[in-house]
Design a protein that fits this description.
By secondary structure, the chain is mostly helical. It contains 13 helices and no strands.
């Protein structure tokens, strides 16, 4: 009986070893075909690896490269999503999984499907809470929520991101997008408050110029024309190359003159 057990274990190990070697050859052959530009043939090899050795160490490699082929080389985003999603589901611990989950969200975002992108970005936050790209992905979620018009949800996520990463550029980005959302809701005092919050902490940040414009637009739309003119005059000195400021200032001066000019008798 013991001899039978040892024989069974030996045969099982041998079978697994053979499958592993076959999977390795199939995966490597797929890479060769990929490098030759034969992407469909490469995908066929990798699908074969998944069919006869799904538990091998090459399963996640095969799915990743299937997705990359469809996404980058064949312009078939739906099939790329399928491959990447299968990888994340079946090989969550794979080193490919976080980036492939990001790619799924990116494809949906690029297609303008912000609702699906939001779902996939939330999934990333749930599955990979300690990933090094967490803050970057969180910021993408905030932008997608903004684009989808889900302003309250966006503000909640921006504040949560700021609490998780205080003092970081991601915190500042959150304040900026909160300001943008309040501006679109015609809540100009709150918009100015958050744009100014961004500028107080990141006066030279990459969104500083846009934050200043956001304050200017908020002052304009709130009827504070004199304050808006003073702001644009100051910005014109800071950003002399920016034509947008000059155009806004010219338009605002005309509005101001029209509003306060006296009608002839």
């Amino acid at each position: 009986m013991r001899t039978f057990i040892y024989l069974f274990i030996g045969l099982t190990f041998l079978s697994f070893s053979c499958q592993s070697q076959r999977a390795k050859r199939g995966f490597e052959r797929g890479r060769e075909l990929y490098d030759q530009g034969l992407y469909l043939e490469a995908i066929q090899n990798w699908e074969m690896v998944l069919s006869y050795a799904p538990e091998s160490e090459y399963g996640d490699d095969a799915l990743h490269w299937i997705g990359i082929s469809y996404y980058l080389k064949l312009d078939m985003p739906d099939r790329a999503i399928s491959a990447f999603s299968r990888l994340v589901k079946n090989y969550t611990d794979s080193g490919y999984a976080p980036n492939d989950q990001i790619l799924v969200a990116k494809i949906y975002k690029d297609q303008g499907d912000y609702a699906r992108a939001i779902v996939e970005l939330y999934r990333f936050l749930k599955l990979f809470p300690e990933d090094e790209k967490l803050a970057e992905v969180w910021n993408q979620l905030i932008i997608c929520l903004f684009e989808a018009g889900e302003y309250q949800a966006m503000r909640n996520q921006a504040k949560a991101l700021a609490e998780r990463f205080p003092g970081s550029i991601w915190e500042g980005n959150g304040w900026f997008w909160i300001g943008e959302s309040y501006y679109l809701e015609d809540n100009y005092p709150e918009a100015i408050r958050y744009f100014q919050e961004y500028l107080n902490k990141y006066p030279e940040g990459e969104l500083a110029y846009k934050a200043w414009l956001g304050i200017g637009a908020s002052l304009e739309d709130d009827g504070q024309l004199e304050q808006a003119i003073e702001l644009y005059q100051d910005l014109e000195k800071r950003y002399p190359q920016e034509k947008v400021i000059q155009l806004r200032l010219e338009s605002l001066n005309k509005r101001y003159e029209k509003k306060y000019s006296q009608k002839p008798n």
